[in-house]
Amino acid sequence: MTTATRDLAGLTARIAELAPGLRVETGPGATGPYAYDASNYRVPPRAVVFPRTTEDVVAVVRACRETGVPVTARGGGTSMAGNAVGTGVVLDFSRYMNRILGIDVEARTARVEAGVVLDALRSATALHGLDFGPDPSSHSRCTLGGMIGNDACGNRSVRDGRTSGHVESLEIVTADGVRAVADHHGLHPVDPDDARAVARLESDLKRLIEQNLAPIRTELGRIPRQVSGFQLHHLLPENGFDLARALVGTEGTCAVVTAATVRLVATAQASTLLTLGYDDVVEAAEDVPEILKFAPSAVEGMDEAIVATMRARRGPDSVTGLPEGRAWLYVELEGDDQATVNARAAELLALLRERGRLTGGRVVESPAERRSLWRVREDGAGLAARLVDGGESWPGWEDAAVAPEDLAAYLRGFRKLLASHELTGVLYGHFGAGCVHVRIDFDMATDTGRDVMRRFLAEAAALVVEHGGTLSGEHGDGRARSELLEVMYSHRMIAAFAAFKEVFDPDGLLNPGVIVDPAPLDADLALRELPLVDTTFGFPHDADGFAGAVRRCVGVGRCRSDAGGVMCPSYRATGEENASTRGRARMLQEMVRGEAIRDGWRSTEVKDALDLCLSCKACSSDCPVGVDMATYKAEFLHQHYKGRLRPRSHYSLGWLPKTSALAGYAARPVNALLRGPLGRLLARLGGVTTERRIPAFASRRALRRTLRAAQPAEPAKAVLFVDSFTRAFRPQVVGAASRVLADAGIPCTPQDGLCCGLTWVSTGQLDTARKVMARTVAALDNGDDRPVVVAEPSCAAALKRDVPELLGTEAARRVADRVQTFTGALTDLADQGWTPPPLPENVVLQTHCHEYATFKGRRPADLLRRLGVRGVDEAEGCCGLAGNFGFEAEHYDTSMAVADLALKPRLDHLDGRPVVADGFSCATQIDHLAGDRDIRALHLAELLDPTADQPGETT
Length: 955
Prior knowledge:
Blueprint: H1 3-18, E1 23-25, H2 28-31, E2 47-50, H3 54-67, E3 71-74, E4 89-92, E5 100-104, E6 109-113, H4 118-126, E7 130-131, H5 144-150, H6 157-160, E8 167-173, E9 179-183, E10 186-189, H7 195-211, H8 213-219, H9 243-247, E11 256-263, E12 265-266, E13 270-278, H10 281-286, H11 288-292, E14 298-303, H12 304-314, E15 327-335, H13 338-355, E16 360-364, H14 367-378, H15 380-385, H16 407-420, E17 425-430, E18 435-440, H17 447-466, H18 478-481, H19 485-488, H20 491-504, H21 545-550, H22 569-574, H23 581-593, H24 604-611, H25 619-622, H26 629-640, H27 648-652, H28 656-663, H29 667-675, H30 677-685, H31 700-709, E19 718-721, H32 724-729, H33 732-743, E20 748-751, H34 758-762, H35 766-780, E21 788-790, H36 793-807, H37 810-818, E22 819-821, H38 822-828, E23 842-845, H39 849-854, H40 860-866, E24 871-874, H41 892-901, H42 903-907, E25 915-916, H43 920-930, E26 937-938, H44 940-944
Parallel strand pairs: 2-4, 3-4, 19-20, 19-21, 21-22, 23-24, 23-25, 25-26
Antiparallel strand pairs: 1-2, 5-6, 6-11, 7-12, 8-9, 8-11, 9-10, 13-15, 13-16, 14-15, 14-17, 17-18
Helix pairs in contact: 1-3, 7-20, 16-17, 23-24, 35-36, 36-37
């Protein structure tokens, strides 16, 4: 046993003694994802602890103090400065300590635990017409504890300022395990027995302030976004010894915050959004001082690279409402009366046009356009990380701020500095507050590149100080900028920071290496040169192949959101970091790195991390950097089981296209067999859950009858691809689809006997998948350039993406270019004057995840609304079945938990509305959830069938 192992064993034993039952994880499969946040750094912890109560936190801190192990508090893990990683114990507050303890509507305050996600608080307070003012772009996953740690601001900081301005009190645990409350007047013990220790701490702090009055008054609090260092000016006599505000922004280096009482603000009654176009970001910055005279709630800026990447990743319709330009400002105005707000907006727009810098400007009226535009801005960090041209960019100097009136001059100097080092930066940020976020194409994998980065950062620090600014405006100093604080502050102030930390943490155990006694800014960088990994998928969009693909994850954590989009269903169902897209990507990065995980493709830790991935592909669209975990999982399973016995479900479900074709020749006896005891035995032997009924196989006779009827009466304009699922289980969809398409002016020739290979891809049997796909491509790439319409969305997605990426041939790409979903065909190819038969006013819709991810801008919900369905209640999220996943015995519970998130609640409140689900998996899950209720999911073709007397009837 090594010394490190022995020390870890002693620590975990002491924690178990002080807090029996507390969850402590120490293996690389659990700690690997916690070596990273959203910064450039990799710092593996010894252990990750998941406290449920403040008493648990006290126990951990005391055990760490006794054993000399550092402690790092962590919320959502979205820090871009490296202040949420550490070498000792990481306390993950987001997993369990995430309760809203109370909302006082009259006092306009809320008491929350440190792990509460901002959006959860905002949803709760919105019921009372209240909100928490600071709103970082990561609001869907950042925690209040993390916001307090870095003194976060957000998009509306022009109005609401920093988190420190909204904190009433902090409930903390000190480095020696004392519980106390910091408020606007000092520090108060929770336990009266600790009164002497708390009084001594207060006395030491007051003495420190008295000894440093001059530098504190002259160096701190100069501009609104001065977050760098410690905010000791709140402890000045004229500020009332406000220890609550002084502790905000200390990045977990002085105390562990377990809960807070925060002040709320009233929700605006009226608002409007202006989008303003400029030739570049400097021109935009020149107009900011004039805009601020109109008291906006937000003034946000970004350049064209972010918009181009968003459109490339999510389709051209993902960004609408921007005027002509190469850089843009969003200006939000709020007030009590909409007419007054509109008048102010018109006045501002007219004034800016007179000033002559605008290339265009407009008021955005549509709520949908506003949501779309804000999402572009909020995804800025991720979108800028991996641009449409494949270039990578990184944080490190992503948070500098100056006074708004100095912003344009600073940006001019900054762009010259970038050019002098032959670097490129993607600019965006809170221009109204003078805070600029920029991601730069640093080369941190080589010694030369790291030297360039170090020189650039030193010069950038000098530049921002020259303009009266701050190294950090809301992200904190962390590991990225703490070393540079000496450029910004005097030696006396640096000594005062050190003395402040020593009062709270004399042994230096709380988040060491940050702000005080900083680690070198180029220590512990995650990037390094790695050998290319031999894979079956080509990963054509990633220069370094598989290694470059998994490196797409930069930790921004959108996959940890509970709402909005589809990603990540397994995280939403479990709440576990390792069950998130980010957690899995970090484990794959660890595998490629080969240090903590040394057995490569054979790693059981990586296999376990990937196990609950539903392969829904939502991350490939929802993730700002385009992580495609379904493809990574398929590649891993292929390599992991190469030459080895596979799980039974890989055979029973992976080979379903073959076995279902055979079953069709004897469908009636096979169905009877599977419904009885022998069927349940066969399911268990095949690794399939017995909680579900096996879907009934259709007979070959029914298929042949459908195919004969589907032959077009006029020259076909398209090919109707009859996929394996439709062929085996619901051939009536072929008939309905052919009739609808013909009615819409798109007569089709059905193409049977081919397969997209999806089931072999999802189970990682890529050699077989390639053979199946090659046969399909050879049959379809026959000189015919007609569209290939696929009724089953998952098969359409496989033909569109998996086939060209796995085969890598021009023929595969030609076929992929022709593929359309049923929705896409009706959207793009239908006769202009086509009208469907009468449709219901309201439907419930479950969109297949692969269709959502792959066919951007061609969504069933949009088509239904265009065709006249007034109410489309879409179950936003995965159905939970996800092909083979929900049929596998070990995944049944997770599958149902995912269904509970969005689909099941809608089925429980149908009120007679039809249910539309094009995906066979989705329809099967709906049938299972329906139980004995008379609910059947309709394919969109069945809903639109012109021969049906009622929607869903088939002929």
